[in-house]
Amino acid sequence: MKIRIWRREQWLLRALVLCLMIVPVMAYGQDSAPMETASAEADVQKWVEIFEDPERWNWQGGIHILGLMAIEYGDTVADIGAGTGYFVRYLAPAVGDDGTVYAVDINPAFLDHITSRIDYPNSDRVFPILAAPDDPQLPAGEIDAALILNTWHHIDNRVAYAEKLKESMSRSGRVVVVDWRAESLPLGPPIEEKVSRETVIQEFEKAGWRLVTDSTILQYQYLLSFYPDRS
């Protein structure tokens, strides 16, 4: 237990250092353009202006998300529903020179935007993956940590999606899910488009995952982590 607590404190400190290295970006949320409807002809710059607001880092609770992901140097991580690449800019420094970040999205225009940006450490360790709406298209058995940020409520057939995601996990792989609380909020999608925390937990458990973290520390969202249930 002492080792696990030390590891979390170590990563909170490392995440804070990363925050100081990179100017915070984006505001409304990575999901303002739904994965299914953010088509290739979308005006990427418009979404950059929506997503990349200096206030976002604070309300999004970025340091808590990074801490929960517990990324180690050399890890392979995935940002599923990466949008314009908000969190990619933080994940790349975390994995180090030998790590890998997969930026996953169904919109090729977003992926082109992500790969064109080289203004953050280890941007050369970021690799785009053009996903399908029902499949993240990740390599089997490689992912040490996956982030699904403001995206889960856009996915259809979510249990099947979680089952496919499980196939991509390494032996120590975990997934962190951040999404909007199913209530009226000043940010985020309409309440009828949201998925409750309880529903997300049920979906992942049905797909063979085990809930590890269930946190309400974020201002507008729930913060969950799951590991594949290998029992």
| Beta-strand content | 15-25%
Any idea what the CATH architecture is? Answer: 3-Layer(aba) Sandwich
Strand count: 7
Radius of gyration, in Å, reads 16 Å
CATH uppermost class: Alpha Beta
Helix content: 25-40%
The CATH homologous superfamily is named Vaccinia Virus protein VP39
Low-confidence stretches: 1-13, 15-41
Order of helices and strands: HHHHEHEHEEHEHEE
Q: Major sheet: order of its strands?
A: 3-2-1-4-5-7-6
Average residue pLDDT: 84
Query: Which word captures the global form?
Result: globular
Distance between the termini: 21 Å
Number of domains: 1
**How many DSSP helices?**
8
Largest sheet: 7 strands, mixed
User: What class, by secondary structure content?
Assistant: alpha/beta
CATH topology: Rossmann fold
How would you characterize the overall build of this protein?
- The protein has a single domain, classed as Vaccinia Virus protein VP39 (Rossmann fold, 3-Layer(aba) Sandwich).
- Strand 4, helix 7 and strand 5 form a beta-alpha-beta unit.
- With about 230 residues, the chain is α/β, with parallel strands linked by helices.
- It has 8 helices and 7 strands.
Considering the chains and any ligands shown, give keywords for the structure.
231 residues, alpha/beta, Rossmann fold, seven-stranded mixed β-sheet, globular, disordered N terminus
Write the layout of secondary structure elements.
Layout: H1 2-21, H2 44-51, H3 56-60, H4 62-69, E1 76-80, H5 88-95, E2 100-105, H6 108-116, E3 126-130, E4 143-149, H7 158-167, E5 169-180, H8 197-206, E6 209-215, E7 221-228
Parallel strand pairs: 1-2, 1-4, 2-3, 4-5
Antiparallel strand pairs: 5-7, 6-7
